[in-house]
Structures
1.
Amino acid sequence: MERSQKLIYILWPSFLVAGVADALFFTAFDPADLHLFGDRFAISGTSAYTIGFFALWVLGASASALTCFLQRSSAEVNGMCPIADAVDRPPGCPRREDTGACR
């Protein structure tokens, strides 16, 4: 899979989830009423919406990236040779039959 495809698989769903989560969060909470460590936020409502959206987008992107990371096959993770016949494997492949080919 190409790198650009993986980025699309990660960023697009997380963008959609961030939009919905941002709308739901700020429907329930007013940015003027938010406090951090006992002090009110000294930023405008638009800034709070923007920061909230990007924070939720990063959270969603990290979840999507973790999903892409965990769906890799064992051959991708371990660098195993994809060739089934041991004789046809290239030199240096750890599963080749002749012992002198191992690194």
2.
Amino acid sequence: MTNALIAAIPLAIVASTPLLLAVLGELVVERAGMINLGIEGMMLTAAMTAVVTAQLTHSVVLGFLGGIIGAAAVGALFGLFALRFAADQIVTGTAIVLLAQGLTGFVYRELQLFNQPVPRLEIDPIVPLAWIAIPIALALLLWRTRFGLRLRACGELPAAVTANGASVAVHRWTALAIESVLTGIAGAYLSLALSSGFAENMVAGRGFIALSIVIFGRWKFKGALLGTAVFGIAAAAQYAMQAGGHGVPFHLLLAVPYVVTLLILCGIAGRVRAPESLGKT
């Protein structure tokens, strides 16, 4: 069992890479004072648009670009209602998830492109980027620049940003743009690298898990990496148990990482402090 667990860790790191990208994007957005439950729909849309673009252009690189555009379109829809019309962010995000699930499911069944071969990512530069380069770059941006200071102030005391002559809306739109790029890459990675194409609801709750990991990590990048690593280890344990053939039903094994995440959240409930203006219009 131990040997199987160790052998499964590299696979778990690769498999949890889209989750980490979503976590990093959501962390930036929540630091700016928004809760984007629609991240699940952003990843799902990105997975579909990446496949469509890759099949039309026969290019994996353009497929990833298509994924980013798909996520950005959904992110813009969230921003339109949450920022422009000051709608409730929880309700808006939930509606976007339902819309994305229905729309991508309809396109999946109706569009014949999905019957064609999908270009695959042969050389994988995404894993080192997600686990090393992007967290460092975002940490420097948020904690070592004036822009990052103002963005974090948008999540704590927006009035101070306005009093300083800066725009809260601009900073929050920028945070959404960063999240759109990261979730777009995450969704494209799911369909063009981890899978051989698009499938209905293939994101499988990773967006909601990302929201949980941001809370677990106390809205810091070190915590985000740690939380994703815990999820990855739980996934490695799931793979090891599957390989061990202990007679446990397959569907129960699939639930192991999610149960571990839920138990962790129950353990830290009430002991973390969110950004002061998180979720407020």
